[in-house]
Amino acid sequence: MSIRNTANKTLAKREFEFEVFDDPAALHEAIVARNNQNKARVVAGYCWPWITKKKNPTGYDIVIGDYKRRWNLDVDGSLWIMQPNSIDQVGCIHTCQGLELQYVGVIIGPDLIVRDGQVVTQPDKRAKQDKTIFGWKTRLKNNPQETTAQLDLIIKNTYRTLMTRGMKGCYVYSEDGETRAYFRGRLRRLAT
After folding, report:
1. 16, exposed or middle or buried, with CB in 10 Å at 0-12, 13-18, 19+?
2. What tens digit of pLDDT does each residue of 105-127 get?
């Protein structure tokens, strides 16, 4: 299963902004610049453990080079995305479903990469706290085909949901260079 075609046949800037970033800090800065009326946020796949929740409240959860952020506020639950100070944090799949923004910045973790033009999912790269795939190793031993298909679907649906939160634009960063190149290649083809 790969990424399905959508109703958007073009990604011309006048219709929808889609940009691939080489640096998560630059992506976050671009989202902050687009945060008109509190309608732009950064979200990510659930690949980084949430250590600030209990173990280290003054630390950082998401660390990619010099980029350091905390996961979404735990006191606001599903209202996180609406809180003004949440612009400094990173949301996850559980705090942005069903809510639209003007612009969304998506950090793609190592659980979704592209190799030779094929989208590959890696459930072992998800944070152990991610309850959507809890117990997957045991299930994989008992029913490998069905479990692999379910895990693949969960990971792809996570990013589909995250990437469709922005009504005017989506900015993407992936830690993986080949994945960034894949998105840029797709963008060039769609923009013509």
Report:
1. middle
2. 999 999 999 999 999 999 999 99
